[in-house]
Amino acid sequence: MQQQSIFVLFLVLAGIATIVFTYIFISSKKAAAEEKGMSNPLKKRFWFSLILFVILTIFITATIPKSPYYLFADETPARVIHVSAIQFQFILSEKAIDPENPSGESHIELPINELVEFRVTSLDVNHGFALYDSSNRLITQVQAMPGYVNRLRHKFKDPGEYKILCLEYCGMAHQVMRSSFMVN
């Protein structure tokens, strides 16, 4: 639903931008007798700049609040799950994972309608950390990179089993790099 509303907003803004550029193109072809020369070159630029500023302000106002990081910026997560990616598995744990001796938990259960923060890193090469719902629809994703921890926050709305798949080709057994957890 949110993707559709953002797409409609994009189409409206793209249409407005097309109309503005078309108007400027057409009006620049037909110069009236009083507009020849340097009568007032800043007048058109002022109105164009003002219209562009209004459009950008509307766009920013409409899109920034929909950012997932903006929505959960001040909220403390109910659970923090540490994730280490290593060829060809994801290691999940509620405690920090030791890179020298990586081990995790075999069964993770997360709460429904509460903020969960995944702290994602890689122990070898770049990986993709992608969460899929029970109907195999991509919900959210972040990169798992060596030497860096990416934080991914999400509120799960529906109970069930969620799958984790790697979205970054990481070697010959990339297709078997998967894990899962339950949301109750």
> How many strand elements?
9
By helix and strand content, what is the structural category? alpha+beta
Rg from Cα? 24 Å
What order do the SSEs take from the amino end to the carboxyl end, as H and E? HHHEEEEEEEEE
Which topology of the largest domain does CATH recognise?
Immunoglobulin-like
The poorly predicted ranges are none
CATH superfamily of the largest domain: Cupredoxins -  blue copper proteins
Mean model confidence by pLDDT: 86
- Share of helix, binned: 25-40%
Strand portion: 25-35%
- The largest beta-sheet arranges its strands as 3-9-8-5-6
The biggest beta sheet reads: 5 strands, mixed
Distance between the termini: 23 Å
Q: Which CATH class of the largest domain applies here?
A: Mainly Beta
The tally of domains stands at: 2
